[in-house]
Amino acid sequence: MAAMSTGSEYLRLAAAAAAGMAAGFLLASGRGTTWLKRPKRGEQPLLERLTPESLQHRQWMQRMEAFIFDIDGVIHVAGTPVPGAPEALAALEKAGKRVMFMTNNATVTPESVVERFRSFGAVARPEQVMTSAIAAAAFLNSRRLEGQLVYVIGMDSLVDELSSRAGVRAFGASEDGGKTKEDAFREFKLAMVPPPEEVAAVVVGADYLFNYYKLARAANYLRQNPNCLFVATNPDPRVSLGDHAIVPAAGSLLQAVATACGREPTIVCGKPSRGLALQLLESEGFTAASTCMVGDRTDTDIEFGRSVGMETLFVESGSMTLEEVRVVDEASQPRFVAASIATLAELLKPP
Q1: pTM for this model (two decimals)
Q2: What is the pLDDT of residues 158-207, one digit of tens each?
């Protein structure tokens, strides 16, 4: 099995990605499955369910050499493991499949992901984990912003990643978590500290302490300094808490900042970036045709895989429902759907 990339290699591949930012399926039959033709415009898409009873699907699994998994909603939901997910990961590793994780969650680090997995019996190594925070740091690094000021809407873990990997002077995050509207009116009317012309970038990620003050501060930096880079870690609007409950994610905060400042982001660093997908394949030595991207969102995970020709699997264990998947654009349609990644372990069992 080929060696995994190091953290520095991930930084290189994401930096390279940041710098470079058929009408129907063949209709055929096999035991237990039917390949489904793309519907005409206006028709409801027919999605193919991955099933262990299908000979074609078992043969497909044999052809797959690598799997790239989203994490939230795929491996666990709010810290609770998806039933069968730890066992599926172990079965894939035992079968010699290469496994990686690509998360748009900028509040985590590779080390914290590994620790979270360990708490519910799943095994992973830090070098198997890529995050949108690492990709954002790589973008800043590619713009040679070492030593410059960067305002962060996000958690302190994002500040740490940007500071350590890009060498920037990141500020904001939790230090502005207790500020109020009154603080914004008083401080910004006089003079912002630091002044907008000294802030090289604003980075927006998931922030559980998001408030009016942070929104106003970020918007003023971006509006008053047209050279200030507007960097988003990811576009996800929401994440699942299970039992149909959701909470806002980074994409919701991103839209608030964009509306307030009147600017669109300079770059969105995480999935579905095609440049990042290409560099990930190159770095790991994966072949797109034998690699499957697995996720719970079509607009990030599935589009990420499809953009470079990977196989794609949508799982129903996360934030999107199957009904929502049926109405998305054809470019974001998955190759397969399954209840969860537990189906992958079933495909590896003897018939």
Answers
A1: 0.81
A2: 999 999 999 999 999 999 999 999 999 999 987 899 999 999 999 999 99
Active-site residue identified among 9, 53, 65, 87: 65
Catalytic residue check, 9? no
Could you say which DSSP state residue 301 is in?
A: I
Tokens found for residue 10 = 């991930």
HSE value, Cβ hemisphere, 13 Å, CA-based, for 333: 20
DSSP string, 190-221: H--SS-GGGEEEEEE---TT--HHHHHHHHHH
Cβ–Cβ < 8 Å for 323, 347: no
Distances (CA, A) of 140 to 11, 143, 161, 170, 281: 11, 5, 11, 11, 22
d(CA 338, CA 318): 11
pLDDT tens-digit readout, 33-64:
333 344 444 444 468 999 999 999 999 999 99
